Amino acid sequence: MFGYTFQWKQVFARLPQMLDGALVTMQIAVLSMVIGIVLAVLLTLFRQSGSRLLSGIATAWVEIARNTPALFQIYMAHFGLGSFGIHLSPYVSLLVGITFNNAGYLAENFRGALKAIPETQTRAGRSLGMSPLQAFRHIVVPQMLRIAFLPMTNQMVWAVLMTSLGVTVGMNTDLFGVTQDLNALTFRTFELFAVAAVIFYLIVKVIQTAARLIAWRLFRY
Amino acid sequence: MIEIENVRKSFGSLEVLKGIDLTVDKGEVLTVIGGSGSGKSTLLTCINGLEPINGGRIVVDGIEVHAKSTNLNKLRQKIGIVFQQFNAFPHLTVLENVTLAPRKVLGMSKAQAEEIAVRQLSHVGLGDKLGVYPTRMSGGQQQRMAIARALAMSPSYMLFDEVTSALDPMLVGEVLDTLRMLASEGMTMICVTHEMKFAREVSDRVAFFHKGVMAEIAPPAELFGAPKDPELQKFLAATH
């Protein structure tokens, strides 16, 4: 009807390249989550520290990460830092941008989770002779984890989807970047991006299913 | 022995303990009665150092609780406390609730801690609930679990802070029976309570707190039979 003939064969022939791209996408998402969680824990501690400087840094981070576009954050990592002579590769820029975003959102989740656990839990632990650290580790953290788990899963999904923004800083080895390059090569635009979308969808489904299994295994109470 | 000397405690400008003097001997069961806000619960949390004090001193077995050099984590191992809100750890099973502190604080092996936990839990009538999560249990059961959890640390003293106040009236009996059992076994106990009948039955002495002052202390027969303090007379008339 629009004079467009679907040619799936050409696209399926490139599937291995796209799946390689999907691996890179997964790699960035996982790395950005692992580093993001570590940073988010630090930011949460900063905000609890009582130091105005530390809590100021943490608050600024969380505010910027949550209230500006992820694309802006990735641009800043690439072109923004570039202005100061710090040149990051597209891969690193994308990783830095997404990690920055993850850390901000996760820090807020962790803060909420921490608030949800009554002070009396720590008190009960301390009254049994536990040190503050022991009470935090064995009583507060496991309960926090349960509360923060679902938001963490969501953030992981976001991290996967955000990798598609890498194409704007010249990233061409991830799923979206590979697809973009193949499009320039073959002009099978609809087919290529439809397949890419299906792969994204499947990755997300796998993450959600895995998360559900982990939650079922971990949180029996 | 717990020695409390002229203890003062304020929350901001509100003075909740106005110079308390009290000694509790080994094996004694002391109950503390009094209206809300009389300072009786605060005294308990001061005894195990959960709350700092503003004056006086508390000495437990020769160790001054609020001295800077005191290792509170170590001291608390010998002073068990059970709260009004049971404070069960919801993410742990009943057995894990009770073994956590013996394992992490006393460094016991899992098997060793479980042996003690099973014994204490059976003792309070929860021997069949080991693998259950606390949220699946009644308030009375959770409170008995909290008692077993404190006992698993083999404390020399047990403090009970209105442990039946948050319970359904139907469940008060089972918890009081547990306390009676401990008293009969010679545990040194301080019980803050609103259960007058219980106080009368199990106590060696009963202390009446009013507005941050210990207005009267006497054996139960005397305190309930012939109260001297006018506030206590009012209190008993109201609660009879």
TrEMBL record, chain A:
Q: Which residues form the ABC transmembrane type-1 domain?
A: 22-211
Which Pfam families does this entry report, sorted A to Z? BPD_transp_1 (PF00528)
Q: Which UniProt keywords apply?
A: Amino-acid transport, Cell membrane, Membrane, Transmembrane, Transmembrane helix, Transport
- Gene3D superfamilies membership: MetI-like (1.10.3720.10)
Transmembrane helix found in the keyword field: yes
Q: Which InterPro entries match?
A: AA_ABC_transptr_permease_3TM (IPR010065), ArtM/GltK/GlnP/TcyL/YhdX-like (IPR043429), MetI-like (IPR000515), MetI-like_sf (IPR035906)
Q: Which GO terms describe its cellular component?
A: ATP-binding cassette (ABC) transporter complex
Question: Main localization of the protein?
Answer: membrane
Does Acyltransferase appear among the keywords?
no
Q: Which domain of life is it from?
A: Bacteria
* Coiled-coil segments on the chain, per record: none
Q: Which family does the UniProt entry place this protein in?
A: Belongs to the binding-protein-dependent transport system permease family. HisMQ subfamily.
Q: What is this protein called?
A: ABC transporter permease
Q: What is the lineage of its organism?
A: Bacteria, Pseudomonadati, Pseudomonadota, Alphaproteobacteria, Rhodobacterales
Automatic annotation (TrEMBL), chain B:
Coiled-coil region list = none
Q: What is one GO cellular-component annotation here?
A: plasma membrane
Q: Which residues cross the membrane?
A: none
**CDD domains assigned:** ABC_HisP_GlnQ
Q: In what way does this protein cross or attach to the membrane?
A: Peripheral membrane protein
Keyword Membrane set for record: yes
- Designated name of the protein: Glutamine ABC transporter ATP-binding protein
